[in-house]
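> forwarded from #structure-qc
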């Protein structure tokens, strides 16, 4: 008892000290109400009444709108950037990683996508020092902030969604544990006293009353043959096996039918909440799971249960609840079409709507806004779990939070859970333990606000590191998925700047790319020079991968490494193509030093090629890295010049000469003079003598000609026969995205055949000869394409991308932009969408010629 008391006293003292610091900052600011008008012009300003935005906010550390105090926050907690004294140096993080998805912090609140905070901590620890400021422009549930604060860093968390920032704020701000537990129990007790009768049921003995844990509701369908209604649960569910049958018999006519052959039975009634008549699919209760004491039982609903439901339906809910109209969207179509769910309150049974409204109304300690918001954070977790989105999963003992992530899907069997089944004392204890961690380990200096990542109100060059997990194409429609949460919070996402691919919002891949570019440009602006950004990419279409790479590089960043997170081994493997892997990708990119950037822009890149390569090579790990190969380095150089419209002076052959004159090649990788001793030391320390022995987790997938040549160069560390090469080569080939030469042609045109064995070029003369031969071949291939375009109006098929890159580079150097556009007009649009190097030339040509293809 004595030890527990000391812990409590220590936590209380820590809270008071943090509160003192925060109160001092909070007292020095203007009220948010006086500043809203100065923020309203921002396109990311949320949709909602001023009083609701103010009620949700807790300034200066959290605002449910763009944060007018962020400059003061940076001024108070940040470290000014001094280029003359800046000695920062990091290479990409390549260590092992632990995801930590079973951590109680991670599981305290759900969200559509999450990177575990323990995984993020590894990156933050590598790239930053204590007291640094970490930024996340797509913060979601705030795991970047959790990771930063646990490492004694400051965090700035931004998201367009009020729901996301509210979750993030509560994850990252301490609260009085004792007060929280007291108020949480008060809420549960009051709601049980008022609404407990709604979840009573009679035990099978007909006398004893039990408490309902959950009720299963089933769709009602109409048989296409006899036109009678049948309850799906009775006709199609195998209760013993817990499976839904694809084919089943109609209970009336015994015809063999499937669900897709049948129409849902519907009912039309007057909805008092919105004052209009509506038509919805019929769902009826079919199973009740309840407890008598500590024992659980199941039964079919009886007269007592059905009378109780009718009584609730006839009653008026005495609390406010949202009646917002569902937006037209990708995710809202299914509930609207299949079940007639057109408004937020339709996602709930009358019973659960009543209880949820009661729970949301109870946190009202107006003297302590932080406690009120944390209580809402607790109750908010009922919003999805108590809705009709929750599917009944018979093979699972628990029916808590059985909704499908990433969608608003209403199933044919839904489970109506009681609030005490979801939000019991155990859940309160879990949130309480989260509060203790917040209080004990966090430094209490994280700011969260609702804004677009392209308009943060943060000053230039003041952030030390960026870790972010942005939306990727059409994977998730966040504003639609967050609509239920935000309806209860009364503040909605302004989706004008939402960076997604969404036909309803008239946003295709180009619009998505433009929005992402604007966001990354803002991140580039606020990041200190010579610092890093890590982007988590959830594998999607190659076109989206290309758009993300384009957006990052167009913003000014240089991508130094792309790795795949191996979730089983907790490690990284280097990759060259997103389409070749199934795991999440990690993109590490840096903002060049200010001095280099200034001279690069001033000189329009002229004469800066060597300096760019030296700058880039120092940013790469000294261990073997795909980015150190000649092909990847040339691609980086082209991107830097072409995207800015600067003159490209080097062909691939001239680029090879530049490398050979100023840098060193070992084991197929290029280094600066200063890096070579460290690379050799790394090999010695690893007990390695040759490239053949190196096992660094590199994983080159053959998807196109460039990756094929990269793979072959690495594989031919010593001479090999064609049959050996053929066997290994075809094992490494994944889905080919390109028209590439046959293996024999690749070998004959790029490697030396000697004594029936293929090997790499060894001398400078051999390398120049092979490169010249390759250039002549690519030139002939491109000239054939150009001739075909000039003589025919047909679309180009079976296009060799390396020939396109070569030809476009030559045309760009000679300012033959019309040739680039002539070929581009005949290309499959997919080629441009999925290849940033080719698309860069086309975009610049469009600008130069003043026309679109």
């Amino acid at each position: 008892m004595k030890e527990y008391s000391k812990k409590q006293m220590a936590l209380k003292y820590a809270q008071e000290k943090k509160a003192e610091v925060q109160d001092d900052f909070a007292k020095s600011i203007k009220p948010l109400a006086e500043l809203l008008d100065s923020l309203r012009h921002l396109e990311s300003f949320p949709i909602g009444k001023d009083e609701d935005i103010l009620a949700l906010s807790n300034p200066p550390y959290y605002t449910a709108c763009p944060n007018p105090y962020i400059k003061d926050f940076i001024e108070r907690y940040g470290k000014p950037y001094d280029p003359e004294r800046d000695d920062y140096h990091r290479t990409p993080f390549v260590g092992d990683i632990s995801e930590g998805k079973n951590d109680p912090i991670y599981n305290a609140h759900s969200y559509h996508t999450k990177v575990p905070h323990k995984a993020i901590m590894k990156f933050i620890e590598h790239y930053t020092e204590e007291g640094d400021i970490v930024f996340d422009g797509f913060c979601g549930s705030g795991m970047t902030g959790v990771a930063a604060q646990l490492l004694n860093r400051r965090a700035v968390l931004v998201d367009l969604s009020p729901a996301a920032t509210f979750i993030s704020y509560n994850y990252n701000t301490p609260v009085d544990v004792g007060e929280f537990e007291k108020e949480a129990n008060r809420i549960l007790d009051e709601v049980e006293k008022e609404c407990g009768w709604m979840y009573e049921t009679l035990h099978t003995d007909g006398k004893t009353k039990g408490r309902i844990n959950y009720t299963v509701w089933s769709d009602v369908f109409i048989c296409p043959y006899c036109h009678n209604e049948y309850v799906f649960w009775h006709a199609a569910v195998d209760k013993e096996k817990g499976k839904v049958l694809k084919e089943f018999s109609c209970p009336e006519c015994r015809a063999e039918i499937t669900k897709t052959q049948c129409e849902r039975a519907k009912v039309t009634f007057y909805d008092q909440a919105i004052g209009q008549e509506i038509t919805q699919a019929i769902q009826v209760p079919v199973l009740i799971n309840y407890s008598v004491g500590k024992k659980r039982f199941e039964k079919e609903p009886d007269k007592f249960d059905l009378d109780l439901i009718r009584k609730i339906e006839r009653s008026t809910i005495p609390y406010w609840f949202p009646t917002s109209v569902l937006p037209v969207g990708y995710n809202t179509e299914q509930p609207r079409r299949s079940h007639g769910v057109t408004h937020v309150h339709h996602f709930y049974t009358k019973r659960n709507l009543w209880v949820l409204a009661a729970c949301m109304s109870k946190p009202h300690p107006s003297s302590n806004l932080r406690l009120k918001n944390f209580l809402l954070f607790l109750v908010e977790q009922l919003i999805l779990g108590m809705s009709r989105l929750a599917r009944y999963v018979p093979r699972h003992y628990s029916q808590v939070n059985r909704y499908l992530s990433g969608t608003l899907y209403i199933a044919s069997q839904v489970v109506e859970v009681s609030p005490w089944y979801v939000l019991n004392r155990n859940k309160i204890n879990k949130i309480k333990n989260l509060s203790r961690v917040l209080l004990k380990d966090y430094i209490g200096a994280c700011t969260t606000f609702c804004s677009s990542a392209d308009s943060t109100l943060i000053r230039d060059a003041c952030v030390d590191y960026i870790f972010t997990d942005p939306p990727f194409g059409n994977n998730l429609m966040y504003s639609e998925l967050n609509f239920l949460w935000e309806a209860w919070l009364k503040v909605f996402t302004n989706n004008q700047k939402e960076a997604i691919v969404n036909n309803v919002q008239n946003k295709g891949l180009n619009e998505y790319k433009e929005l992402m570019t604007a966001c990354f440009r803002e991140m580039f602006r606020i990041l200190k020079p010579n610092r890093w950004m890590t982007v988590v990419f959830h594998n999607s279409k190659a076109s989206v991968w290309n758009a993300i790479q384009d957006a990052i590089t167009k913003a000014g960043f240089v991508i130094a490494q792309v790795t795949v997170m191996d979730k089983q081994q907790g490690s990284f493997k280097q990759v060259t193509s997103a389409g070749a892997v199934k795991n999440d990708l990690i993109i590490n990119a840096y903002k060049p030093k200010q001095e280099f950037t200034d001279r690069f822009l001033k000189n329009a890149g002229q004469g800066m090629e060597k300096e760019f390569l030296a700058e880039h090579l120092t940013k790469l790990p000294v261990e073997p890295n795909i980015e150190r190969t000649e092909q990847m380095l040339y691609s980086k150089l082209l991107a830097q010049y072409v995207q800015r419209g600067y003159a490209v002076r080097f062909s691939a052959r001239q680029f090879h000469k530049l490398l050979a004159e100023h840098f060193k090649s070992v084991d197929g990788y290029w280094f600066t003079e200063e890096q070579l001793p460290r690379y050799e030391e790394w090999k010695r320390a690893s007990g390695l003598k040759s490239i053949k022995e190196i096992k660094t987790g590199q994983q080159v997938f053959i998807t196109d000609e460039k990756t094929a040549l990269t793979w072959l160069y690495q594989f031919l560390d010593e001479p090999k026969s064609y049959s050996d090469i053929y066997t290994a080569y075809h094992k490494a080939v994944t889905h080919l995205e390109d028209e590439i030469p046959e293996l024999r042609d690749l070998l004959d045109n790029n490697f030396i055949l000697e004594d029936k064995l293929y090997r790499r070029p060894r001398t400078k003369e051999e390398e120049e000869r092979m490169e010249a031969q390759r250039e002549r071949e690519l030139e002939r291939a491109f000239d054939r394409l150009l001739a075909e375009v000039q003589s025919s109006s047909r679309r180009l098929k079976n296009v060799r991308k390396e020939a396109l890159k070569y030809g476009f580079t030559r045309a760009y150097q000679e300012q033959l932009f019309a040739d680039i556009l002539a070929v581009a007009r005949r290309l499959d649009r997919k080629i441009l969408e999925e290849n940033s190097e080719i698309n860069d030339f086309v975009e610049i040509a469009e600008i130069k010629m003043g026309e679109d293809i």
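QC bot note: The CA atoms of residues 146 and 172 lie 6 Å apart. The first strand starts at residue 62 and ends at 63.
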